[in-house]
Design brief:
mainly alpha; 64% helix; 55 residues
Amino acid sequence: MAPVGGTAVQDHVALAEIELCGELIIAASAAEHRLSLESIDEVLKVTEEREASGD
């Protein structure tokens, strides 16, 4: 049983990772074939992150 009194801890990094995993699962289930590396990068918005950081 969870303790009463607002002792819940939120790990924002873990929550973001869970959200990304969910996005990958949705994309994979909607795809007819395996996702390519480019498709995975698109789902994870890797290109957008690289452009934003200037790499």
